[in-house]
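In response to the reviewer comment on reproducibility (Comment 2.3), we provide here a single inverse folding case reported in full, input and output, so that an independent group could reproduce the run without further information from us. The structure tokens appear first.
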């Protein structure tokens, strides 16, 4: 059977189904032509079977109905192979797809959860690995940093640990007079006094240990449990009860690392504490701590605090720190944690509460009993429990300042470095003697108020050693700081003449040689007008000896002598003898005392006359020791001695200045320059009492602004006195014998008390006593042989 294609042509090759049925294709559509015979067989077969054969209706291929049917048919894609007709039966039960969707949805959710958990686990493991790695890195860095910090701390402070005692804050500078009495204590940078372990109250030690470091005696310098305990106590009570630092750490803080409130500083303390514990015993550590820790009120150390709060002072047999009782010790120990907040003078209630805490700790740790605690609290509540130490006498104000200046020169330090230098200075001052001299000067100046004399200065020196025994810059040392004796330049007047005379003696002039005292005129150089001098009294004595001229303080003979020897030579002698500074222009008139000099220098220079021409450097310091008693400096008189004039010239000068007969015409028989023990009235009535040899010279300036007297005795004392006014105003009718001489006389008698009466040494070799006949004058006197 052939089938036409879309063009009306028949397909040349027919198609057959699997059972032999021919398939036609009409206009592109395949049509199956069923063999009628076979359909009949099938129908018959169905009749014999259980089903009835269905034969579809047939339409003519070219009928309108068939054509209409084919109009909406969509040609199907040819299917390769063969197509079998089979019924469309359900493979799955109803709802299967919904269940499968739900099941798949749940599966997807479970898979998502599993993936999320897996992701989280991965993140956790990764973060954990990163954390462990970071921790290891940080730990390594921290360890390396800490190791470096330890090394840096050891490098910086390690060398200082073995010499901790040497670098402790120094004690306050203390000065003592020649008798061992304290005359000065530097307090401008706080007061600190160190005492040994054996001289500190055991109760004070227990109180400090109980409140600051209860495991002090057994810890290695730091105490972790103490830090925890302190933090717990502070949190429990709501305020600071005790610190976490041990006593050793606090010592390190005070001495080495400083008191900055930082973690690094705390670590430095902990690092260094074991080293300190290895180098020092617990007793040494506690002693250093108690001697340097701050107790408020500018007091460092228990010795200073004992005086500041309880008025206790050290005695020859006991220190102030050794006499502290339970109440006093507990109060001081409580101050340390906050010196300002626990100051019993400023905040008595807070100080008492803190003291009770200390007593409570002492009781818990077995240092005191309950009754001792109660007694201490009762004692602290009494009105006179606190008592400041008496302010030391300041009568040696000028001397003390002179000592400080001398210390700067001896030690080559600044004045500001002395206050906490820890030095203990034994000075040359004789304080009881100075106090007596001060009263004498005050009484004499008081008697001269009507003569416009308001002040005086006085110096006493042991010319054999150069030791300054007294240095009074004025008669009101507590009110007037100016030191006329060592700082003021005052004209010496006639007291300068012996320096010129002794120069002439060395050149061969004898005090027995003649000189004419009369009107004279000196031709001056350099365009200056001629100089016509006058004696003090305006009169002339005619032909006299040099002895008489000097002892009666005549100006014209002195000027003649100065012109004869050359004023430069006289000045050089004065400088060699101790006039280290002067004010003014040297010239012919310097023999009259026209130069301004220091009373201290002139007094020291006069001592050379009494010491056979040997000048020993004036000084105010005997020894300097540190707070541990080690000698740092000691003055050596032999090493500071110098022969400044010949012994022969010094002897002659002493012989002249001690000749009371020679000066009688000018000053009278019983002038204050004659060292008698009775009153002037008794002396003139013929009862001078005990008379001691003394050599002295007065000086008065021509404008009556200055009155001086300087003299010495065989026992080694040389005393210089100045009287006048600080403002340089003129005195009224006051000469040397009225103003300064009475003070010199009475002060010298005090200095000589207890000494036997003795004469000056006899003439040295090379000095002879001769009677000489000069035209118009015969004298018997001493001559130096060349």
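Designed residues, in position order:
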């Amino acid at each position: 059977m052939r089938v036409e294609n879309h063009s009306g042509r028949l397909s040349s090759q027919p198609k057959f189904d699997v059972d032999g049925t021919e398939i036609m294709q009409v206009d592109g559509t395949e049509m199956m032509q069923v063999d009628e015979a076979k359909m009949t067989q099938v129908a018959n077969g169905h009749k014999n079977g259980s089903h009835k054969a269905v034969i579809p209706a047939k339409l003519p291929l070219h009928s309108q109905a068939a054509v209409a049917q084919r109009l909406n048919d969509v040609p199907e894609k040819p299917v390769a192979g063969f197509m079998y007709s089979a019924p469309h039966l359900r493979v799955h039960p109803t709802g299967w797809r919904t269940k499968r969707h739900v099941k798949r949805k749940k599966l997807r959710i479970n898979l998502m959860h599993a993936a999320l958990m897996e992701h989280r686990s991965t993140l956790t493991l990764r973060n954990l690995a990163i954390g462990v790695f970071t921790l290891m890195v940080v730990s390594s860095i921290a360890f390396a940093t800490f190791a470096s910090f330890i090394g840096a701390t050891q490098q910086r402070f390690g060398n200082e640990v073995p010499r901790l005692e040497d670098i402790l804050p120094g004690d306050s500078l203390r000065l003592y007079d020649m008798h061992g009495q304290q005359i000065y204590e530097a307090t401008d940078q706080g007061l600190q006094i160190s005492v040994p372990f054996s001289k500190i109250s055991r109760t004070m030690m227990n109180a400090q240990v109980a409140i600051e470091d209860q495991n002090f005696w057994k810890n290695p310098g730091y105490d972790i449990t103490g830090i925890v305990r302190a933090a717990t106590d502070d949190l429990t009570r709501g305020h600071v009860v005790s610190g976490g630092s041990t006593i050793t750490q606090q010592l390190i803080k005070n001495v080495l690392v400083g008191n900055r409130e930082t973690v690094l500083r705390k670590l430095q303390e902990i690092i260094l504490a074991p080293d300190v514990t290895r180098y020092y015993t617990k007793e040494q550590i506690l002693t250093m701590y108690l001697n340097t820790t701050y107790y408020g009120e500018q007091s460092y150390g228990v010795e200073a605090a004992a005086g500041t709060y309880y008025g206790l002072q050290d005695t020859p047999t006991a220190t102030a720190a050794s006499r502290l009782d339970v109440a006093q010790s507990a109060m001081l120990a409580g101050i340390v944690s906050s010196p300002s907040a626990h100051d019993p003078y400023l905040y008595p209630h807070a100080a008492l509460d803190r003291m009770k805490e200390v007593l409570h700790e002492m009781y818990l740790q077995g240092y005191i009993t309950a009754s001792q605690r109660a007694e201490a609290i009762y004692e602290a509540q009494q009105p006179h429990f606190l008592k400041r130490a008496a302010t030391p006498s300041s009568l040696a104000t000028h001397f003390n300042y002179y000592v400080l200046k001398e210390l700067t020169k001896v030690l080559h330090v600044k004045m500001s470095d002395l206050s906490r230098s820890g030095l203990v200075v034994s000075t040359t001052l004789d304080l009881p003697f100075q106090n007596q001299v001060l009263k004498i000067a005050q009484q004499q100046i008081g008697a001269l108020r009507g003569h416009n004399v308001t002040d005086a200065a006085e110096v006493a020196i042991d010319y054999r050693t150069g030791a300054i025994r007294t240095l009074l810059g004025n008669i009101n040392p507590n009110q007037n700081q100016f030191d006329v004796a060592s700082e003021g330049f005052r004209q010496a007047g006639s007291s300068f003449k012996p320096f010129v005379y002794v120069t002439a003696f060395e050149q061969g002039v004898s005090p027995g040689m003649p000189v004419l005292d009369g009107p004279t005129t000196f031709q001056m150089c350099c365009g200056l007008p001629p100089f016509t001098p006058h004696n003090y009294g305006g009169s002339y004595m005619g032909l006299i000896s040099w002895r008489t001229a000097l002892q009666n303080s005549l100006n014209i003979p002195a000027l003649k002598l100065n012109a004869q020897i050359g004023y430069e030579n006289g000045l050089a002698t004065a400088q060699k003898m101790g006039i280290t500074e002067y004010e003014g222009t040297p010239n012919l008139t310097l023999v009259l005392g026209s130069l301004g000099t220091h009373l201290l220098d002139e007094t020291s220079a006069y001592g050379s006359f009494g010491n056979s021409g040997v000048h020993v450097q004036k000084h105010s310091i005997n020894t300097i020791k540190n707070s541990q008693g080690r000698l740092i400096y000691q003055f050596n008189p032999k090493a500071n001695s110098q022969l400044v004039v010949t012994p022969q010239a010094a002897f002659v000068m002493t012989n002249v200045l001690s000749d009371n007969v020679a000066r009688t015409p000018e000053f009278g028989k019983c002038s204050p320059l004659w060292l008698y023990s009775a009153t002037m009235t008794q002396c003139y009535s013929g009862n001078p009492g005990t008379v001691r040899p003394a050599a002295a010279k007065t000086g008065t300036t021509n404008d009556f602004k200055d009155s001086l007297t300087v003299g010495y005795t065989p026992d080694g004392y040389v005393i210089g006195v100045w009287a006048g006014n600080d403002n340089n105003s003129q005195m009224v009718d006051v000469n040397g014998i009225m103003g300064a001489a009475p003070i010199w006389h009475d002060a010298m008698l005090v200095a000589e008390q207890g000494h036997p009466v003795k004469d000056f040494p006899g003439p040295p070799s090379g000095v002879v006593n001769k009677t000489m006949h000069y035209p118009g004058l015969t004298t018997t006197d001493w001559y130096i042989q060349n």
